[in-house]
Request: fold
Amino acid sequence: MKLFKKIRKTMIKEGNLKRYLLYAIGEILLVMVGISLAFQLDNWNENRIKENTEINYYKNIKDQIDDDKTLIIEQLEYNNLYMSQFKYANEVLDANDRSKMDTLGHIIRNLTQYSDFDRKGNIHETLVNSGEIKLLKNNTIVNRIRMLEEKYNYVNRMENIHYDAIMSHVIQAINPVIKFSNGKIQKPDEIYNYKFQNLVLSILQVMIEKDKVYHEVLYEIEFTINLINEELVIN
Reply:
């Protein structure tokens, strides 16, 4: 700045007005360029911070739904384990096969078992409420996260229906006819009838629907993870 001031004084003393004006204009342009560069640098830094924040959100979402995937697979396998047993029990009841009574007793005791993902958090809702969803520029990913949350909610509803059925109907039906300590059937005639078979079939229908939605959730998770991976590669 001292150098510029000295040059201005020299030009004024020499009476070279034209050169002075050209210099003054050049100095102003230089200052404007400097200010513009400073603004551009600030904007670049701000955009970079936003991009890094967005990337971190995608990574965190990916980690969370990847953990959810592990839990869903566990619940899917647990549900299928007992669903296969209950299908076999239905076949035994339908055939009125009393030679399988010991096996049937142990299976009926397991009617109190149910899979429970019980997802409490809501990624999409949290992002919306916090305003942080504005940082996610990939609308396709945002929409898939919303769809995934809807599937989670449906899983929770089906699990609640299953639990309520156990508490309201299954326990009342099997408590008088099964000895829980060893799974022995105490009243065969109350087991080998259409009412009890209808109960088993009702539970099976709930479990079949749960199996369907578990697979739908796994598909949504895989699809969303692939979208996030693509976005991370781009960035």
User: Anything to note?
Assistant: The longest strand covers residues 178-179. The chain has seven helices and two strands.
